[in-house]
Amino acid sequence: MTAFNPYEAPKAPLYVAPTRVELDGDCWREGAVLVVRAECKLPPRCIKCNAPAVEPIKHRGYYWHTPAWYVLILLNLLIYAVVAAMVRKHTRVSAGLCERHLRRRRIGLGIAWASVPLGMTLMFMGVDMERGWLILAGALLMLGLLIGGVAMARILMPSHIGPVYARFKGCGQAFLATLPTYVGGR
Ligand SMILES: [Zn+2]
User: What's the CA-to-centroid distance between 112 and ligand 1, angstroms?
Assistant: First the structure.
């Protein structure tokens, strides 16, 4: 029998703390946020209302950068555009929409595209008729339709894109409720 030696080297391998919890699957929820691995194909259901999705589901690219870069817009729009193109992160996700939400997206895209010619027409009419209020109404109409159309058309809004995981807002509760809860990693 050997005496206990507190100074001998440990026989068991040293415990290595996990730096990232590896998870099964590739999509989870974290509150109201969707968490996915890169190249994730979400279940074939509408991410807004959980109804069956229209097939085939498009594999769409999403870009994101740290919001702090938006400060450059105040400096110069062109500088911002160049920097944003360099620092932005990219990922791709297949997110389904049902018939109803796909139609809503197409209407939103149509409104966004129509915003510029409609607004410009009113503004030119205002210039032609020398009516300041008509020019202002045209500018407001253009901005309003553009913002409203984009809001109707957007599918997922990236809130963070990291090297492994990406986070998105824009999913409905009914869809999120079917996903497992995200418990770790980055
Ligand atoms: Zn839907």
Answer: 21
Q: Ligand 1 center to residue 170 CA distance, Å? A: 12
User: What distance in angstroms lies between residue 62's CA and the mean position of ligand 1's atoms?
Assistant: 20
52 preceded by cis ω (within 30°)? no
User: Quick one: which H or E segment has residue 151?
Assistant: helix 132-153
- Going from N- to C-terminal start, the domains of the chain cover 25-97+155-181, 99-154
Q: What is the pLDDT of residues 108-164, one digit of tens each?
A: 999 999 999 999 999 999 888 888 899 999 999 999 999 999 999 999 999 999 888
What is the whole-number distance in angstroms between the Cα of residue 18 and the centre of ligand 1? 39
Distance from residue 176's CA to the centre of ligand 1 (Å): 13
Surrounding ion ligand 1 within 5 Å at CB are 46, 48-49, 51, 98, 101
The string of pLDDT tens digits covering residues 159-179 is 999 888 999 999 999 999 999
